Amino acid sequence: MNTATFYIIKEDSEQASLQGWFAYVHFLCRHFTTQGAKLFVNCTDRSEAEQLAEHFWQIEPEQFVAHNLVGEGPKNGTPVEIGFEGLKPSWNRQLVINLANSHSTFAHSFGQVVDFVPCEEKAKQVARERYKIYRQAGYQLQTIEIQHSES
Fold it and tell me: What is the domain count for the chain?
């Protein structure tokens, strides 16, 4: 069964900042890749994708996750491929982590979707629309309030 998990970002959480959010995305990538998943991280645009990739390079060596931007890296890709709206990931991705705040969804493209419900009211409404689309596509849905802390 296809699943979509929406993580709720609280206004006062460390994930409400860009660096905190990137740290949490890295945490999720590590979690899923240690389970053997190959995943695609969908950013809003090239700039955000490059910032996220750079964040991954700044991680301590023992927490490093092999990654590449779409179109770069080895032929079969690394466990984590980072792209942005309008780019297609490699064919061998089972899971998508969506960072883009748009109406686009990955229904029928991935077996597992990770998405976020941001703090800002307008962004929350767009996330609710994505949630409805996944529900209509038959995805099993769940929401999780982020409890993670890097400290």
Answer: 1
